[in-house]
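debug: dumping io for the single-chain case to check the tokenizer round-trip. Nothing else runs in this session.
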Amino acid sequence: MAVKVFIDGSEGTTGLRIYERFEGRDDIQLLKIDPELRKDPAERAKMINSSDITFLCLPDAAAMESVSLVTNENVRILDTSTAHRTNEGWAYGFPELKGQRELIKNSKRVAVPGCYATGFISIIRPMVEMGILPADYPVNCSAFSGYSGAGKKAIAVYEGDEKPADFVSPRQYALTQQHKHLKEMKKISGIDRTPIFTPVVDDYYSGMLVTLPFYTDMLKGIDGPEQLRDKIAEYYEGEKFIKVNEFGAEAQSNGFLAANVRSGWDGLEIFVTGNEERVVVNARFDNLGKGASGAAIQCMNILLGADEAKGLNL
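debug: decoded output
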């Protein structure tokens, strides 16, 4: 019997991508809301409580409202907003973290990670768990993202005929250090300090590069990038969605790492570079894939007991 799935917020970028990924799946029955009633609480409540699984692809306030509409205790919620990512009672939707897959499998409330947070946590959490990175390390992170994560209005400007000159350039933002992903980046990683975070949106559609630099003399048991690479690879051994590249892999692209080359892919790859004194770790992935809709589908597959990669591109 097909699982009944409702996407609350199917008109947004993430909702549309989730919808597209259901094409050809005979194990899913999509419940579709009348477009004229998609913001009507009563109709949304009807659809949510008629589903087995509901995806929330909404702004935070609307996502919280949708959760309040649940009366059917069997409905499982996958929230792609920021609203519940650090809340008690919600499983964080990053299955590759130790113990997290089982939490997701047994939960009725799953919060899908933020895109920047996915790259950050993929690097920092293993280092903290393995005792390599002290919890009080002053973490500094920079990141590049395609404009697809910037919202409908910004996408329209980027793709419009009268694009302003500054939209052709990389644009740094969240300059007050108040980015909405910081809360989960700190909590899920297990670090004591909120990291300094410098995100940049650039003039390409999708793809993300999250960069973290470290001094090896402030790490424990690490004397260079090759050793750190091997430790992170050990942490993710057997995980099909995360690939830790061999040391020196950046030579295949002449020593460059482009943020957009994994667009359309649903995995995440890690590069460890540098020297004995200073190490740089990069996570590269699609902000709409492992950073959003791909992660949501992976979590749904876990809830259903299906192959985690079903409907995804690896």
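debug: round-trip ok. The chain has a mean pLDDT of 96.
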